[in-house]
Amino acid sequence: MISSVMPTYARAPLNFVKGEGSWLIEANGQRFLDFGAGIAVNALGHAHPALVTRLTEQAQKLWHVSNLYNIPQQQDLADKLVELTFADTVFFTNSGTESCELTVKMVRKYWYEKGFSDRVEIIAFEGAFHGRSSAGIAAAGAEKLVKGFGPMLPGFKHLDWVNHDTIEAAIDQKTAAVIVEPIQGEGGIRPLPDKYLKGIRALCDRHDILLILDEVQCGVGRTGRLFAHEWSNIEPDIMMIAKGIGGGFPLGAVLATEDAASGMTAGSHGSTYGGNPLACAVGSEVLDHVADPEFLENVSRKGGLLTQGLMGLVDGYSDLFDSVRGLGLMLGLKCKVPNTEVLRACYDENFIIVPAADNVIRLLPPLNVSDDDIKEALYRLDKAAQACAGKLNEAAL
């Protein structure tokens, strides 16, 4: 008999009822150190006082009016994002998936309005994840995402990750844009080297095509810069964001230059809930914290502390772990044993991590995680590694 909650997730047997900072608490009082942060969503941890206050204040005033009217909270957040980024304009969504849908529409409308209606193809890369919508899975192209959901939305070319020669060879008269994650999250915490991101920007400029960056997981302070592409000193034409910008409240956005958004006029796109007063009030509060240079410097410092500890675990458990990947507080540990074994061992230590492709476990703590909680996380991961190593030794006997 099917569950009343549709069984599309293989859920862990954990039931959390409360969160405090970097900690989650079950009904029986068990505390878990959370280095998953809702898959890089809870940028300021659980129940951050400033977010609770901002949401409560807004909830007592106005929840929803729809985009038929001006929404002051939306305007405030859009103005902040435009001031802080390359963008000239912002459309608010409820999720990264919705941001992807709009991005695909925006690119195709851009070329249609310029008189090139056949320029509809978007170059994407192996290992990518752009959400679970029809456009998102078509853009990613992985069998595990698309199997059984055909026919796929056409107009995507999938290339190996990332080879400049293959990109240039794939560009033709139908190419509209290139879409890439500066750091692949679901794909196994795979950072795109600076020279490659710079090279892709140069290719797009040379061939007059748009560059789309998917910063749904790696954006909003996660790497120690407000957005990951800033490390490479390049700018996109369009950028998708979500996750961290809402701090746990559903919120996403598409940021664009005036030129890239030139095809989007009244009636070309819409969202009933996107940019509602509740979400934008919270998002504005999140941005006030995360965009602070001192806060971002601290993310980098804490990322260095966590990286150093993880590298020590790689050295200490060379039969279990291969290497450390990532930047800031978006880190991955490449495993030599199935990552699900490490995941289960971490659960046994009341420690929350997140699996990813390429046999990687992700560590995505709140950006304001304390040094003490980082040390505690490394201790618990060490205990989990001891348990995995013990099982490995038993199997060898």
Based on CA inertia axes, which overall geometry fits? globular
By DSSP (H or I, 4+ residues per run), the number of helices equals 12
Mean pLDDT: 96
Strand content: 15-25%
Q: Tell me, what is the CATH class of the domain at 49-290?
A: Alpha Beta
Q: Widest sheet: strand order?
A: 4-12-11-10-7-5-6
Distance between the termini: 42 Å
Regarding quaternary structure, what we see is: single chain
Secondary-structure element pattern, one letter each? EEEHHHEHEHHEHEEEHEEEHHEEHEEEH
Largest sheet: 7 strands, mixed
What CATH architecture label of the domain at 49-290 applies? 3-Layer(aba) Sandwich
Structural class: alpha/beta
The CATH topology name of the domain at 49-290 reads Aspartate Aminotransferase, domain 2
Helix content: 25-40%
Give me the Rg, rounded. Answer: 21 Å
- Poorly predicted ranges: none
User: Looking at this structure, what is the CATH superfamily of the domain at 49-290?
Assistant: Type I PLP-dependent aspartate aminotransferase-like (Major domain)
According to DSSP, the number of beta strands is 17
Short description:
This protein is an alpha/beta fold and 397 residues long. The protein is built from 12 helices and 17 strands. The protein has a domain of 242 residues: Aspartate Aminotransferase, domain 2.
Explain this structure to me?
The strands form four sheets. The protein has a seven-stranded mixed sheet, sandwiched between helices. The two termini are 42 Å apart. α3 runs parallel beside α9. It is 38% helix and 18% strand. A hairpin with a 2-residue loop joins β13 and β14. The protein is an alpha/beta fold. The chain is built from twelve helices and 17 strands. The protein has a domain of 242 residues: Aspartate Aminotransferase, domain 2 (3-Layer(aba) Sandwich), CATH 3.40.640.
